[in-house]
Amino acid sequence: VKIFAPNIEQRDVVNHLKGSPTEEKRNVLVESARLARGNIQDLAELKAGEFDAVIFPGGFGVAKNLCSWAVDGKNCTVNEQVSSTLQAFHSAKKPIGLCCISPVLAAKVFPGCEVTVGQDKDVDGRFPDAETASAIAELGCKHICKNVNESHVDKANKIVTTCAFMCKAPLHEIFDGIGTMVQEVLKLA
């Protein structure tokens, strides 16, 4: 297992204690290294031939830095290195795992694919970003409704997705969903 991130500037830096942006500038690779405890490489160095699968986490980092979904929604652009990485694994028929908001990357890069970001309706306030499912459908992809503890496997494209924090749920349910995504990716590898 190796961890990669693009060597680019973050769109913005957020003070998560206050929930507001700061004037600070940070680099995605440097910030990712903090989370990975330094054991990380530049995404430009990733070679699909050296790996059995790729998994992308989610979160605002994806929506702001790996693509422009946070600002542009379905009209977003995907970072070129991210798009190239996804295409390389797809072309090699290797599985791709995506959780939280990162299934939108597949929706932009692989028209017609099947993904989940949870539900397409805000059920009991648990899916406040349910409109993301509609945007995915507008991109020509099929959104599959799943609960937070489940994942969806698009067998034709070897793409496995789960909604994670797109659902307001207890952490153990999010953990279970991510676990099923990882298990399904490994089955396809």
Topology:
Elements: E1 4-5, E2 13-15, E3 20-22, H1 28-35, E4 41-42, E5 54-56, H2 60-66, H3 69-72, H4 80-91, E6 96-99, H5 103-109, E7 114-115, H6 131-138, E8 142-143, E9 152-154, E10 159-162, H7 171-188
Parallel strand pairs: 1-4, 5-6, 6-10, 7-8
Antiparallel strand pairs: 2-3, 9-10
Give a description of the structure:
- InterPro entries: Class_I_gatase-like.
- This is GAL3A protein.
- The structure is a single chain.
- With about 190 residues, the chain is an alpha/beta fold.
- The protein folds into two domains: about 1-45, no CATH class; about 50-189, Class I glutamine amidotransferase (GATase) domain (Rossmann fold), CATH 3.40.50.
- It has seven helices and ten strands.
- It has helices at about 30-35, 60-65, 70, 80-90, 105-110, 130-140, 170-189; strands at about 5, 15, 20, 40, 55, 95-100, 115, 140-145, 150-155, 160.
- The strands form four sheets. A four-stranded mixed β-sheet has the order 5-6-10-9, sandwiched between helices. Strands 1-4 form a two-stranded parallel ribbon. The chain has a two-stranded antiparallel ribbon with strand order 2-3.
- Helix 6 (about 130-140) links the parallel strand 7 and strand 8 (about 140-145).
- The chain is globular and about 35 Å long.
- The two termini are about 15 Å apart.
- The model has no long low-confidence stretch (mean pLDDT about 95).
